[in-house]
Structures are given as structure tokens and as C-alpha cells.
Amino acid sequence: MSDYSDNCDREIRGKHSEQYHDWHEDGSCTFGNKDKSYDLCAELIRQRKSGEFVDVVVKVEGREFPCHRAVLAVTPYFHTMFSSNLAESKAKVITLHDIDSGSFSKILDFVYTGEILMAKDDVQDILQAAHMLQAEEVLEYCEKFIENNLCASNCVGVMCLADMYGLCSLKTTARCMVMSKFSVVGRSEEFLSLSTQQLLDLLGDKELRVESEDDILLSVIQWLDHEPESRKAEVSGILPVICLSRVRVSVLKKFEVHPAIQDSPECLAKVTAAKEEHLSGSPRLMADTGREEDGRRPTSRCGISDDLAIIVGGWKAVTQERYSKNPTPPMPFQSIICMDPVREQCYHVTDLPTPIVGCMSVASAGRYLYVTGGRTSSLLHPDPGGSNIPSKQAFRYNFATDTWTRLPDLPRGRAGHGSAIVDGKLFLVGGDTTATLFNMLSMECFDIEAEAWIQPPKVPAIIPSPNLTVIGCGGKLVLIQGLRKKKRFSVHALDVKTQRWNSASRSARARDFDVDFRVTAVNNKVHFCVDMYCYGEVYTYDVDKETPSIEEEKLNTQDVKEELHIVDRVCRRRKRYVNGQKGIINTMSRKNYKLRRAGQTRSLYVVNEHTKLTLPFALFGHGFLATKKIHVGWYCRDQLAKVEKERELQDLLRYYYLSSDDEQYL
């Protein structure tokens, strides 16, 4: 039997490569030829074209399609028709309505050949015909074709189309594109054809991503203008899903005069109130918590944050290209820039009105920034021809109107100090390099309403530390510092009204007490940590307790977690002091730079390249403030100029004027 089977196998393989056989255990054998199925299809196609042996004609839009009932019955639509008692089951001619003849022709070709050709201009008609005829495979091919050609200009239409025909996967894909590219989608023609309910469904989705709330409102204005008479009555239902407190004043003014708003006193009152809150500088958000009056966090879009980091002055660090045997000093950075920590984009706010730009402190009250003190040059590279004593200068900047006001000089010069505003008073803490008894901490106090420096509160015996952090919370001025030798945290809180101090301290596991603290105030509690990513320990100081203490927190509160992460991302740097000078923020990878001065070796760190960076260039000696856009008047100004990243600072730093003997440390 084996010899016979081998001979048969060779004979069959020799006749045709598509022939096959399969021997069974009982000695029987199945012979076959795959080409027979191809031949059958070819014969049916030939018969269809010639009209031989066809037994039914399908008429669509006046065109006649001769075909075989047995072939048509492979589709559920025709199978049901021919299996029923309807007249069509025996009819020689079947007329189909509400279907495109060209699309039917292509689907009929697919039934006979297994292939279908579709293009952008007919895929929707083919989809409609396939849905009617229940041709599931053709529906799948249409879905793949449409998904492959999905773009921002057609995703709204595709989403509606997929919803109409129950194509869940395609609808999900199209909707995701609408959500992620709404800034472009909202300007498309298809967007204007959305129904009110479809529009509300999109605008109310938490996953909707836009660059700003302005994009939402501008898209709604275009949608209203597309059918002004029928849609103006819908504005009252649409307004609640728009976060008016995140819309710029210029856009609110445009919306305020829109006919749909003018015809609705209730809507007009809301839009006008949002505009006036921005212009008056006293929005409903509470100044110390960033929350609505009822305690809720304000509504915000995915990818949009009201948080803002403000960076004031400093010096640009020297890069490798600038390094030489006779290096030039670092460039003074005579500007204020701000950064959106979610979008990770920096914007130029204004130029400083003074040549003294480094080691200044900045605090905010409403739309005003208070910039105080400073130093003319870095302590690492003092100006040989001038004095570098701390400055007494003080300025107030109106963010909304972009104007500066010179304030009375400080009673004494300060640089590298902390500042905070509590109960209408600006407090400056530390930064006084003049000789004081036992080198204790000193303070200044500025009455904002009177615009005068007043007698500061009495300060307890506090020894200054490099990482002293100042923050206002619940009517109290809170000072936080790390005591490296004692491995403890220390917190001192001043009740501004009673001028009484409370103090607390505790040991901590932090490995480095000289680095910056990340601090935020939420619900009359000060939360702080050393580094959320490296250490993770978060501590809380309750300013309302009569016997306050520093408690370690598990950080289950989402509000606190969000606030601390924002501060951590903006402040993320190691901070080492060389002759009192702070470390650098940069765009470089982390590396240990050695600096030998007067026989001492100090380490300076640059931020890790895998973290999201806050500045587009290397900067040190700058002032920093974490605040809210709605507080400082961000929405009163139109788009600020973006600060582009400097290419020359992509290389590794060559930091600070080392002699040839020191080059081994680089």
C-alpha cells in the first residue's frame, strides 16, 4: 500500500500543484483539487455576464443585474427573501429601493469574486448598501477603509455615521480623535452640523482636550452663527458646560454682544459677571485655596490647568560653546516668564524695570506681583568693578494691564529672601546679610493698602537656613526649614492679627535637608515634602490647631496630591549653595559637576532629562512663584508670546570659570 500511495502522490503532484490527497486509517483516501472552486466561481461569473442559466434579475435605479438566486442567498438579506412566502421569493425580477446602483454592483461583484474596490467618494454609499443587504464582510472593509482615512476634518462626520450604522469600534476611534483634536475639529464644517444634543455630549465629556477654554467658546459661537434663528434658543442649555472663568476677556466680550446672549438676560448676566470678575481682579475663586466659594474645585478641561509658575529674573548659565580660558559672565535674565506646567510651555510676560535681576523674591496678591530686593551679580562671579550688596528695590507689577509701579525702598537690602502676603501685608523673611546679633532671622513688613513699610512683628530666635521656605495659609505666615545637623524639620507660624508665634518640629527620614521644599496650602493646612519622586514622604502642618504638630501624611487627598505634584514639577531641581548662591534649573541630563573653590569641592545638580522640564534654558538665581492664572489676571490679556528653547543650551553645561587646574573636574 505504501508503494502505491507514493506512486499516486508523485503522479498527482506532477499533474497539478493544487491537487491533494489524504489517506485515512481505514485505507480510504480523499482526493481533491483546490482549483475546482476557482473554476466554479469563474464559470458563474461567465454565466452572469453572458446571461446563461441565470434565474433572477435584480433591478436597482433602472439598471438590471442578471444573477443566480443560489449566489445571492449567501447574504442574509436575500436568503431571508427567498426563504419567505413573499412574492419576491418566486419573482423573476426583484426591484430594490433606497440603494445606489453603483454600490450594489460592487457588492454583487464581491459576492461572486470575493473582491471589492472602494474609494473616498463612494465608500459611504457602499456602507449604506452593505448595511441594507446585511453584507457583514463588506461592512468590515468599509469600516477599515474609513478608519484608515480618518482625520480632524472628517472625524465628526465619521462619528455620526458610525453611530447611525452601529459601528461601535469606528465610533470610538472617531470620537477619540474629536476629543484629542477639538481645537481643529471645532473649526470644521462638519462640526457646524451637530445637533444640540450631540454638541452637549461632546462639550460635557471630561476627556475633551483643548489648548484653552477659548477654543470651546469660539467653536460654540460659530455653531450658533450657522443657524442663528433656530439655535439661539439653545444657548441657555449650552452655557453650563462652558467654563466661563477660564475664558479670556477678549473672547467674553465677543460672546457678550452675540445676539443669542443679548436675547437671554440670564445668559447675559453670567457672561458679564465672568468678564467683570476678570477685570476687577476679584474672581469667585478664593485667593488662598483656589476653590469655589462652596469648596469645590473649579471645572477644568482635560489637558488644561489653571496653575501657573512665574519665574522672575536670574542669570542664564554658561554653556559649553561659551566656555573658554577667558569666559564671559553669565547673562542677566531681565524678564519675567511664566510656565503652564500641564502644557509645559513658557511665555514671556514682561521685562524687569531694573538692571538688578538676580536673587529677587516674588509674591502675589490678586493680579499684582510684588518683586523685592535682589543682587547685581552672582556671588559665584561677582562684578569686580561694582558693589554687590543686596538691593532695597521694591516693585509692584499689574499682570492684567502690564504696568509697573515703583514702591518705597526696603528699610534694608535683601537678596535670596522669601516673601508672602497675608492679611493685606507683604512679609519679607531672611536674605539680610548685614551683621545681626547671633546671625538670627530678620523680617520686614509692607502694608499694601497704606503703601508703606511698617514695624515688623517680633521674630523669635530662628537661625537662618539655606532652604527656608515662606508661605501664607489661613491668616498665618508659615516658615518651614530643614535642620541638617539635627535631621529635623522645623515650622514656625505667625498669626498676623495677634502677632503670636507657634512652633513645631519633628525628625524626618529625608536624605538631604538642604534641597528645596515643595510646599502647598490647602484647607488651612500646609503640606510639604523634600522631593516627591526621590523620597515620597509628605508632611502636614495644621495652622488651626492650638498645639500644632508636624504629621506625616499618606497623601490620599487628590487635591493635595495635584498641588504638590505641580510645585514639584516646576521646582524640580537639586539645590546646593556655593557662597550662598542657589543651584540651577536646566534642560540637561543629570550629572554631577564638581566645582573647586578655595580648596572646597561642591556638587551642583541639573534636572534629570527624563523629567518634564520647566525652562527652555539654564537659569539660576531666579525668583519663583506658584500661583493660579485666574488670580494674577492671565485671562485679561490675549495670548502671550511663547519662549522658544535655545538650541545652544541642549549641550551639557560647562559651568563657571574654572582654572586649567580645575578642568579635570568637568
TrEMBL record:
Domain of life of the source: Eukaryota
Domain (BTB): residue spans on this chain: 54-120
InterPro entries in the cross-refs: BACK (IPR011705), BTB/POZ_dom (IPR000210), Kelch-typ_b-propeller (IPR015915), Kelch_1 (IPR006652), SKP1/BTB/POZ_sf (IPR011333)
GO biological process, one term: proteasome-mediated ubiquitin-dependent protein catabolic process
GO cellular component: Cul3-RING ubiquitin ligase complex; cytoplasm
Keywords: Kelch repeat, Repeat
Region annotated Disordered, chain positions: 279-300
SUPFAM superfamilies the UniProt entry points to: Kelch motif, POZ domain
Molecular function terms from GO: ubiquitin-like ligase-substrate adaptor activity
Gene3D superfamilies per record: 1.25.40.420, Kelch-type beta propeller, Potassium Channel Kv1.1, Chain A
Name of the protein: Kelch-like protein 30
